[in-house]
Amino acid sequence: MENLDAIWQQVLNELAKTHNDTEMTLWLAPLKAVGFEENTITLENENEFKQKVVENTYTSDIREALTAVFGFSVEVDYVIAENQPSSEIHNVPEGNAMNFGTKDIRSPNYEFSFDNFIVGPSNNFAYAACSRVAEKPGVVYNPLLIYGRSGLGKTHLLMAIYHRMLSINPNAVVLYTTGESFFNEFLSCLQNKDTEAFHNKYRYIDVLLIDDIHFIAGKTQAQEEFFHTFNALKGANHQIVMTSDRPPKEMEKLEERLRTRFESGLLTDVQTPELETRMAIIRKKAEKENITIPDNVVLYIAENLKSNIRQLEGIVTSMASYSSALKTPITMEMAQTRINDMVSGTMSIEDQIDLILSSVCEFFVVPINDVKSNSRQATIANARQVCMYIMRDVMRISLNDIGMVFGGKNHSTVNYSINQVIKQMQKDTTYRINVNNIIRNVQESLGR
Questions:
Q1: What's the CA gap between 222 and 415, in Å, rounded?
Q2: Which pTM value belongs to this model?
Q3: Structural domain that includes position 20
């Protein structure tokens, strides 16, 4: 059959509508369509372990997706890729036990420190607790769990702990990760029958900082593994700091033994910032963008955007770009227009582009002008490709408009960059998580 690869991609798109990112990345996306004969499609898998999981768990879903694409019933046959081990143990090379085949596309962001965290009544206790932990890890507040809605500064506090601890003790082994990364790495090690490497990574460290720990709730094996990881670290008086979108008592699928351990230390929340704190956040962001916002405009923004910090910073970024492009000062009318656009979801293409550039460059810690240049330096080129991907596949900005942002690049160059990100997301779980985090930040800044 001609264009079997293209047809299979349509099937994967159908499956993506009803399966989460983890299922797609680990089990479904690696499948390759290698044959079609007599209404039967042959799917090639990487190894016997994955083939058994897919066959037992996803065959009926694959059949439904095939029917949706072909318009008639299609049977499924499986084969294992040649030259692939069927079920052997995959040993991690000695001295490389912490390499799981994925690389974080950034290190913890140095811009997130205690010094530039805006403290107010909504977060002052969480700030104080994190400061104490950073100075005396394993001694006070162990474990520490910070909870609250997305966009209120929990990750900022984790990053601040990371950098403060290393500034005090450069030899400390401090690991920052997310609940989703923990889960996916654990599944990968189960698949490769090499949980020892996983244990080495997570149990022989001084400090574990784990974002969005609620992700493992309801995942039996991951909870079992985290239970033992928690006990190993706590038993050695090594610090554990976690964040979550809710307190342990509200994590419905969290095992009771984990719930009691999470509650055995200090629980502290971060709340929606009050008016004065929101105004301080706006002024801090304006200072960073090197712009001046009149006091009445600062007040107007703070009174009208109350849900999270990312929205406040997003509106300042948008106004900074507009002001710079038109060589005009920030005005009340400008703020009103941008807030109305944000609330109504009608932000201009130019403002969306500026917001994406700002979010991606802040994540990678690279200058916007470098990303818009022709630099081939790896980090800059990677950031540029991620920008193009988000602009096209998330915000639906035209290839023409994207190309113009980056010096008039043509359709094929933009398409190539987008496809590079897609391929990397399919094969690298950590990369995909980080790209999705950037997308989430952009969407929250847009009020979506």
A1: 37
A2: 0.61
A3: 4-80
